[in-house]
Design a protein that fits this description.
The chain is of the alpha+beta class. It has 9 helices and 22 strands. The protein folds into 2 domains: about 210 residues, PmbA/TldD fold (2-Layer Sandwich); about 220 residues, no CATH class. Helix content is about 20%, strand content about 40%.
Length: about 425
């Protein structure tokens, strides 16, 4: 099939092309409580094609992407490519360079032991401790090994095999006549048994605490602390502003050699782009356009050092050794978690919705479950919201020296922010 697509590309009228052949082999398991309900094997192959077309004497370069079925006939392949060429001819992006650097690292071809990977996840989930009031409702496991072969018309070629897994869990917690379900969605490469079990147990505890939570009081002047994967959105705000596309479009005001905040009252953010990250669901050393991903600091001690991004926008910034980046490492702060957790603060562990706008930095979240720490007393609360802007809160950020991984990003275990508004639902007594 690959050779048939390449042959069709040579006569379709495009000026350059990229092909990504992906083969996924895996297992899916569906459990109700602790009993296997059904399972099935997965063995699929896909072909993604991106074509380029120069316009107006190479002044502009258009592109279009699509997929070709592995069962497609020659006529169907030609029809798909013809459509992509037409679509690309309508796109007038200023011309940019297409990756032509030969890859200087070896292919990653060690096969993924899907059976062993599946067994690790099943054993981890079946080891989750339960009680009469906290238990597994159901869970689904998707464990796969993916082999991705990339080639382009400039002779760039690379093959990489890596694990990619998902676990969906529903846990129940009950008290008297009341019962609540908590849903979790975990993605990773391999199975970190200890962390997976810990996260599921925490979900059970949060469910139980929801049943005894009191309405969030209207409080002012205390910090917000985040200790779950929602905190990753805080750091993705900083990461996104070092993206070449954000810079070219003048959304980001970051400059190389300049601090990301005017002044720091807390810790200074340090972020690295990583070529490899164990247990990431995208542990790949080459990006989707065939560029080698190099380890580099994007922000160091609060100062911008590098931008990253697609070939198009990297070219516009004059970045010749850039790439897209799937994995990031945010360094820990100066103090341990025990120090960050001192004084008064509201720790929010469950949101109905939480978002950080990468363009303006607006923060918003509806509180589903939180712990109000005040005067040495802890109150379980629900309802209300937090809001504010990272433009104002970023200088106050403090974070633990300990770190934790959430799939493709490593961040400090706890993150504390000031200058966010807490909207309660009841007046204090």
């Amino acid at each position: 099939m690959l050779e048939r697509i390449k042959k069709a590309l040579s006569s379709c009228g495009c000026d350059a092309w990229e092909i990504t052949e992906s083969a996924e082999r895996g297992w899916e398991f569906y459990f109700i409580r602790r009993k296997l309900d059904q399972h099935r094997a997965v063995d699929v192959k896909t072909y993604a094609v991106k074509i380029y077309k120069y316009i107006e004497d190479n002044k502009f370069l258009g592109s279009a992407s699509g997929e070709i079925s592995p069962t497609a006939t020659d006529e169907e392949i030609a029809k798909t490519l013809s459509s992509l060429v037409y679509q690309a001819s309508l796109v007038k992006n200023p011309a940019y360079t297409i990756n032509d650097k030969k890859i200087d690292i070896p292919d990653v071809t060690s096969p993924v032991d899907v059976e062993s990977l599946s067994r690790d996840f099943i054993e981890a989930m079946l080891s989750v401790p339960e009680t009469e009031t906290e238990y597994l409702n159901s869970f689904e496991i998707f464990a796969s090994g993916i082999t991705r072969r990339q080639i382009n018309s400039n002779g760039v070629e690379f093959t990489c095999t890596y694990p990619s897994s998902t676990v969906e869990v529903v846990v129940n917690a009950k008290k008297a006549d009341h019962e609540i379900e908590v849903y979790r969605f975990f993605t990773s490469g391999e199975c970190d048994k200890e962390k997976l079990v810990s996260d599921v147990v925490s979900a059970m505890r949060y469910g139980s605490d929801r049943l005894i939570a009191q309405p969030t009081p209207k409080v002012r002047g205390i910090d917000v602390l985040l200790s779950t994967d929602d905190a990753a959105d805080i750091y993705r705000y900083f990461i996104s502003r070092t993206n070449a596309a954000m810079k070219v479009r003048r959304i980001s005001d970051y400059e190389i050699g300049k601090p990301v905040c005017e002044k720091f009252e807390g810790d200074r953010v340090t972020v690295e782009a990583l070529s490899r990250l164990k247990n990431s669901s995208r542990d790949i050393p080459v990006d989707d356009e065939g560029a080698v991903i190099r380890d580099r600091f994007l922000i160091r001690d609060g100062v911008t050092e590098n931008f990253w991004g697609s070939r198009q926008f990297s070219s516009y910034l004059g970045l010749e050794d850039s790439s897209d980046v799937p994995n990031f490492f945010v360094h820990g702060g100066n103090d341990p978690e025990s120090v960050i957790r001192t004084g008064d603060y509201l720790e929010v562990v469950e949101f109905s919705d939480f978002s950080v706008d990468t363009m303006g930095g607006d923060v918003a979240g509806e509180i589903r479950l939180g712990y109000l720490h005040r005067g040495g007393k802890v109150t379980v609360v629900t309802g209300g919201s937090i809001s504010g802007s990272l433009a104002e809160s970023a200088p106050t950020i403090r974070f633990s020296s300990e770190t934790v991984q959430y799939d493709r990003i490593v961040i400090p275990k706890v993150t504390r922010l000031g200058k966010l508004r807490i909207t309660g639902v009841v007046d204090e007594n």
